[in-house]
Amino acid sequence: MLTGEDTLSHSLLSSSINIGLLSPDEVIKAAAAALEEQNAPLNAVEGFIRQILGWREYMRAVYLSEMPGYEQVNVLKHNRDLPDFFWDGETKMTCVAESLRPVIETAHNHHIQRLMVLGNFANLFEISPQQTADWFNEMYIDAYDWVVLPNVLGMALHADGGLLSTSLGELYP
Ligand SMILES: Cc1cc2nc3c(=O)[nH]c(=O)nc-3n(C[C@H](O)[C@H](O)[C@H](O)COP(=O)(O)OP(=O)(O)OC[C@H]3O[C@@H](n4cnc5c(N)ncnc54)[C@H](O)[C@@H]3O)c2cc1C
After folding, report:
1. Which residues contact 111 (CB under 8 A, 6 or more apart)?
2. Which of 27, 48, 66 is the last residue of a domain?
3. From the CB of 146, is ligand 1 less than 6 Å away?
4. CB of 119 sitting under 6 A from ligand 1
5. String of DSSP letters for 85-117
6. For residue 12, is pLDDT > 70?
7. 116-157: per-residue pLDDT in tens?
8. Neighbours of 54 (CB within 10 A)
9. Closest Cα to atom 17, ligand 1: which residue?
10. pTM over the 0.90 mark
11. Are residues 79 and 145 part of one domain?
């Protein structure tokens, strides 16, 4: 994360893939071709392909296998309201403000801001997972229920008791 650097080396392709303008297959083939043409290093191409072929498909699979019901998970019983500053970015917490600003301005921020700053803050502050997921659904250009719920409830908030990530205890009832 760097203050004022909103995109870093990210592709900004998620909205185009999710809306169907690009297929995951053609994006993966283009990345593999870049490797062969020596326009991109192996580690970058491997990581990028793994995110689309691995994480994206896995999120979809979790949604398909767990819905309906998954939208209500809250094993940690977090019930505080989403703070108002999620809507205007007005907070003295610089990391949080710098993660909210791009979303408010452009409907996008990158994975680290979503997971490690906003998700972690929501968990520590014990914000309702459902209010948090609603906010992600409303604010992001690449948001759809199938991708928001597993990422927010499972990956970021552990509200499913570890169903999506490593299970540390009882799964949600
Ligand atoms: C709390 C939280 C909410 C998220 N909400 C969304 C969302 O609403 N829509 C969305 O598409 N992604 C979501 N993600 C996953 C990821 O953050 C975005 O796909 C990524 O930031 C999109 O930007 P990019 O295309 O520039 O990413 P890049 O890093 O340049 O590209 C990686 C590509 O891999 C895919 N990808 C990687 N990780 C994931 C993942 N966990 N789930 C699904 N696809 C993935 C995406 O298609 C993405 O375009 C969320 C992650 C978290 C932690």
Report:
1. 10
2. 66
3. no
4. yes
5. HHHH---S-HHHHHHHHHHHHHS---HHIIIII
6. yes
7. 999 999 999 999 999 999 999 999 999 999 999 999 999 999
8. 11
9. 111
10. yes
11. yes
- Does residue 105 share a domain with residue 55? no
31 and 103 within one domain:
no
Q: What is the pLDDT of residues 27-57, one digit of tens each?
A: 999 999 999 998 899 999 999 999 999 999 9
Task: Report the CATH number at residue 163.
Answer: 1.10.579.10
CA of 76 to the centre of ligand 1 (A): 24
Q: Residue 125 sits in which domain range?
A: 73-171
Q: Looking at residue 142, what is its pLDDT?
A: 98
DSSP 23-73: -HHHHHHHHHHHHHTTSS-HHHHHHHHHIIIIIIHHHHHHHHHHTTTGGG-
Closest ligand 1 atom, residue 48 Cα: 32
